[in-house]
Amino acid sequence: MCPTDTVEPAPLQGLGPIISPSTTLIVLGSFPGAASLRAQQYYAHPRNFFWPIVSALWGLEGDAALQHRPYAERVAEARSRGLGIWDVYASCLREGSLDSAIEQAELNTLDRLREWAPGLKGIAHNGGESARHMKITQTLGLPVVKLPSTSPANASWSFERKLAAWREAFTQFGLDTASPRTD
């Protein structure tokens, strides 16, 4: 290879959807951060508020809080309560974890959400980059909300302020109960 030759970086690949036929609300992020890609887990960065917020909304404290449990248990708890998790982007080029660094993004097949989750009642975009694609998710004929990003990069919003906004959405879509559903 000549010194002037450049190698194009390979696109980063996102994570698969956490979704089931009983999903009633799906939270769409933009694309997993570097810590999440390394761990192959949604919201793996220790300062991301996603799991602490969901735990607070469901009354899970101490060792029962999702952020203190193995990832497989977090996913099982989310599924048992009707919560789905995915991202708007399937792949992209990006240095680091900031949404502002995302380039050449390829969208996930968001138009299939209702097919995969026939009980879906709503879609919540986690942050501004995800919400840029609300026009797509709105075509599914469901309520769509924009939530403040749980990312540590969204430092202008306190945990309490984020929690209040997320509580409103979870209440709207019936996911604010303190125990898993039995249906």
Mind sketching the topology for me?
Layout: E1 12-13, E2 25-29, H1 34-39, H2 50-57, H3 71-80, E3 83-87, E4 89-93, E5 103-107, H4 113-116, E6 122-126, H5 128-131, H6 134-138, E7 144-147, H7 159-172
Parallel strand pairs: 2-3, 2-6, 6-7
Antiparallel strand pairs: 1-4, 4-5
Helix pairs in contact: 2-7
Keywords: Glycosidase, Hydrolase
Pfam families: UDG
Enzyme class: hydrolase
Question: Which terms would index this structure?
Answer:
7 helices, Uracil-DNA_glycosylase-like_sf, Uracil-DNA Glycosylase, subunit E, four-stranded parallel sheet, EC 3.2.2.15, Uracil-DNA_glycosylase-like, single chain, 183 residues, three-stranded antiparallel sheet, globular, glycosidase, alpha/beta
Question: Any overview of this molecule?
Answer:
The chain is an alpha/beta fold. 28% of the residues lie in helices and 17% in strands. It has a four-stranded parallel β-sheet. A three-stranded antiparallel β-sheet has the order 1-4-5, with no helix packed on it.
**Spatial sequence of strands, sheet with the most strands:** 3-2-6-7
Beta fraction of the residues? 15-25%
The chain-level mean pLDDT equals: 89
The tally of strands reads: 7
The Rg value, from CA coordinates, equals 17 Å
Characterize the main sheet. 4 strands, parallel
Per CATH, the superfamily is Uracil-DNA glycosylase-like domain
Q: How many helices does DSSP assign?
A: 7
The CATH level-2 architecture is identified as 3-Layer(aba) Sandwich
What's the domain count? 1
Bulk shape = globular
Low-confidence stretches: none
Task: Using the coordinates above, name the CATH class.
Answer: Alpha Beta
